[in-house]
Automatic annotation (TrEMBL):
This is SRPBCC domain-containing protein. InterPro entries: ASHA1/2-like_C, START-like_dom_sf. The lineage of its organism: Bacteria, Bacillati, Actinomycetota, Actinomycetes, Mycobacteriales. Residues 15-142 form the Activator of Hsp90 ATPase homologue 1/2-like C-terminal domain. It comes from the Bacteria. Pfam families: AHSA1. Belongs to the AHA1 family.
Amino acid sequence: MSETVRVVVARVMPARPEVVFDQWLDPEALQDWMCPRPVQVLDVTVDARVGGTVRFDVDNLGKRVLISGQFLAIERPHLLKFTWSNSNWEDPTQASVVSVTFEPVGGDETLMSIEHSLLPPTEFESFHSGWNVTFDQLATRLTY
């Protein structure tokens, strides 16, 4: 097996765990906040069940990218875990794994943590900065 890396990012979100969790399974919400702007999510499909799929059709500054995965765990409102494959990777069949946890903080906030593992080493910086920007975008959406 080739070398892989993992990215870990955490942030307190301005909403309860149930609200934050649901943003991850709502196609309209995902289209708004999932990819770091100026990258645009053109279409999202979500089959929110263990074994179900998630798919993002993305415009990355004029380059079309397909991100797809399969749900490994859905434990509302505490855990989401799914695979992540990117059509632009050197090996587009390689699957990484995204684990997102949601922990209550105080009465109405959530510590949301993501661990994105099994990434190609060349993707570390892109995903580390990308998840940070994406978390900012989600936090902004939650304050609407």
